[in-house]
Structure formats: structure tokens, C-alpha cells
Specification:
This protein is α+β, with helices and mostly antiparallel strands. It contains 6 helices and 4 strands.
């Protein structure tokens, strides 16, 4: 049994993520922590990877991008207790655009995960 299980950008490439999360929950000790870091779905970064998949990239063809709601449901279905979820915004590699967008961070954060390229979730195993 493990105190902590961490899955970072792996569920997006696994054929059956529900099975993987259930296995993570199984190997956690009671009171253990499961941390998930996944690629968010509602951002420019995900759109560019999706287009790459459409254009033939085997790496991105079947990748799945997530919402916090989906990740929350995934851990709850595995018998874990959802603790918290957060998103990190992806800024384009152009300083002027990044600077413009960053001015609106506070207002954008009220909208939830819009623009979040990377999502993290913490779930605990009851015990």
C-alpha cells in the first residue's frame, strides 16, 4: 500500500482511464492521497494538439483532454473523496499577448478552467 499515488499527464494517453484510477485507489492505504495532473481541454494548447492529431500525429490522435468536472467524477467513481482541483493557464510564447492576457487573470479565474492548460486534482482515500 502507498501513502501517495501520482499520475501526471498519463490519463490523457491511457485507453481506459477509469480502470487506471480505480487501480490507483486500490493501492492507496486508507487516508492516502491521489494527485492527478492532466492536460486541460479548454485552451489553445489543447486545440493545437488536437489539430496535430487530425493532421496525423500518432502521439495526439487519441489523446484525451480533461475538464475539472470530468477528473472530479473520475476520482469519485473510483471511491476516492475529491479534495481540491486547480488549473494553470497557458500563455502563448509571445510576450505582448501573454502580458495582455495576464492582466485579466483575476477575472478569468472566476470563470473556472477557461484557458487552463494543466489541471491538478487531489483526492483522498477514505480511512
Amino acid at each position: 500500500m502507498f501513502d501517495i499515488v501520482i499520475a501526471v499527464t498519463s490519463l490523457c494517453f491511457i485507453e481506459d482511464p477509469r480502470c487506471a484510477v480505480k487501480e490507483a485507489a486500490r493501492v492507496l492505504r486508507p487516508g492516502g492521497v491521489f494527485i492527478v495532473g492532466e492536460l486541460g481541454w479548454l485552451n489553445w494548447w489543447a486545440l493545437s494538439r488536437t489539430v496535430r492529431g487530425w493532421l496525423g500525429s500518432a502521439k495526439w490522435r487519441h489523446a484525451r483532454f480533461w475538464s475539472l468536472r470530468q477528473l472530479r467524477r473520475l476520482v469519485i467513481e473510483a471511491g476516492l473523496v475529491f479534495h481540491t482541483g486547480r488549473g494553470a493557464v497557458y500563455y502563448p510564447p509571445m510576450a505582448s499577448i501573454a502580458k495582455l492576457i495576464s492582466r485579466h487573470d483575476r477575472r478569468m479565474s472566476m470563470l473556472g478552467q477557461i484557458g487552463a492548460a494543466f489541471l491538478t486534482v487531489r483526492a483522498d482515500k477514505p480511512g
